[in-house]
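Lecture notes, continued. The same structure-token format from the folding unit now serves as the input rather than the output. Read the line below as a description of shape only.
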């Protein structure tokens, strides 16, 4: 492994065996995921123990450069998520079978096929693959069929990190330079079903810097529709740190996919986004 120990927020390491590349906090996080629950915790550890200030410069850098024996190689975007083989979807019978819980949300067999929904019989989850804009598979998330605590509703496969991307990029269609952002995959699917195609999902009640970067590449205006619950309000507070974002919290106490098409039409009109329907 080669390491560039420049302490000006450009620390880079590269493993010539497995191909891993990234900053020193990222290396620490990946090496000890049982100890550090997030990339931010690894940064805090460096700052506190070694007085090395990675800070915002480290988090906001869009690209890193990896040098190999003095030779400059192609830049690698930190927002890119590694592509995985679609063979991984085969055990879940993605696009063919799933649990009744998915249909109970208002979806049908065509939706199962379109979004490649599957089922995991061992963990009792209906599986939802995550694709990039090139329709390449980057991760798989399973939603538990039985009611679970708010912080344990999803099962993550192959160490996929939800904060590295957003859901719905493979079906995203630009409209009026506006991006509609919702919390969950099913919210995103239902809005697509109602004809809203400029929508992506965060895959949970939090938002990461990588997701912010991806979202603002899709459009300059962002409309965030959060669930009217504790998690939704926390998400709103996190997102207020972003610029040029319109916030909307439904006063019905329901998620967007449970409000019905008519209520969503009124909501978009209120937010000045009715042209998306």
């Amino acid at each position: 492994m080669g390491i560039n120990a420049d302490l000006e927020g450009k620390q880079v390491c590269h493993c010539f065996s497995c191909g891993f590349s990234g900053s020193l906090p990222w290396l620490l996080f990946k090496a000890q995921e049982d100890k550090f629950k997030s990339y931010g915790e690894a940064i805090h550890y460096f700052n506190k123990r070694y007085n090395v200030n990675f800070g915002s410069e480290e988090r906001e850098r869009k690209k890193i450069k990896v040098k190999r024996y003095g030779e400059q190689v192609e830049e690698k975007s930190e927002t890119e998520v590694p592509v995985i083989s679609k063979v991984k979807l085969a055990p879940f019978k993605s696009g063919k079978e799933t649990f009744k819980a998915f249909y109970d949300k208002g979806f049908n067999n065509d939706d199962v096929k379109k979004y490649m929904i599957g089922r995991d019989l061992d963990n009792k989850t209906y599986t939802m693959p995550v694709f990039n804009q090139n329709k390449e598979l980057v991760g798989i998330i399973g939603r538990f069929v039985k009611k679970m605590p708010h912080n344990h509703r999803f099962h993550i496969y192959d160490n996929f990190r939800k904060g590295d991307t957003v859901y719905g990029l493979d079906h995203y269609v630009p409209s009026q330079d506006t991006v509609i952002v919702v919390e969950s995959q099913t919210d995103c699917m239902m809005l697509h079903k109602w004809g809203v195609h400029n929508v992506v999902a965060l895959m949970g009640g939090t938002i990461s810097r990588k997701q912010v970067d991806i979202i603002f590449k899709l459009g300059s205006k962002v409309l965030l529709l959060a669930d009217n619950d504790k998690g939704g309000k926390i998400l709103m507070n996190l997102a207020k740190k972003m610029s040029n974002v319109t916030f909307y919290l439904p006063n019905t106490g329901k998620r967007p996919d449970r409000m019905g098409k008519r209520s969503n039409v009124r909501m978009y009109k209120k937010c000045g986004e009715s042209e998306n329907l």
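Point for the exam: Residues 56-78, 273-277 have pLDDT under 50 and may be disordered.
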